[in-house]
Amino acid sequence: MEFLMTIIKITWIALGFVCFGLGTLGVVLPVLPTVPFYMATAYCFAKSSDRLHDWFTGTRLYRKYLDSYVKNRAMTVKTKVSLLTTSSIVMGIGFIMMESVPAARVILFVVWVCHILYFVFRVKTIRESGESTFVGD
């Protein structure tokens, strides 16, 4: 049983580093999202190692892209625009490539609309002054 737990822990660590690498690539590549991969990194490291989780949450990248969302369930306008632009580009490419699969295009379009609505109306926006607003109120 202990061997199985070790394998599971190593798997979480490996997944955490893969997500961290992809998230870090997303910082420089406009078509790769950063925040979802960093959220997955935090989750994987939390499941595997307190030391890795503490290290990751202390990095400048975590503080820049995730800290405000984790603490306040809020993001800056710049972060929201970056996320929505990147995901819209990726989904748009998928939409174009699925020309012969109309059902998949409809599903992708519905997911895209829900994604936009969620970020616009459910995620608080942090203004530059530090105060947050909630569009849904």
Gap between N and C termini, in Å? 50 Å
Count of structural domains: 2
List low-confidence stretches: none
> What is the CA-atom radius of gyration, in angstroms?
17 Å
Q: Would you tell me the overall average pLDDT?
A: 85
Find the count of extended strands (DSSP E, 2+ residues): 3
Structural class: mainly alpha
What is the string of SSEs from the N terminus onward? HHHHHEHHEE
Treating each run of at least 4 consecutive H or I residues as one helix, how many helices?
7
Please bin the fraction of helical residues.
over 70%
Shape field: globular
Summarize the structure.
It holds the Pfam family DUF454. With 137 residues, this protein is mostly helical. It contains 7 helices and 3 strands, in the order H-H-H-H-H-E-H-H-E-E.
Characterise the protein shown here.
The structure is a single chain. Helix content is 74%, strand content 6%. By secondary structure, it is mainly α. The protein has two domains: 72 residues; 65 residues. It has a three-stranded mixed β-sheet with strand order 1-2-3.
Outline the fold blueprint:
Blueprint: H1 2-28, H2 35-48, H3 50-57, H4 60-65, H5 67-72, E1 74-76, H6 77-97, H7 102-121, E2 124-126, E3 132-133
Parallel strand pairs: 1-2
Antiparallel strand pairs: 2-3
Helix pairs in contact: 1-2, 2-3, 6-7
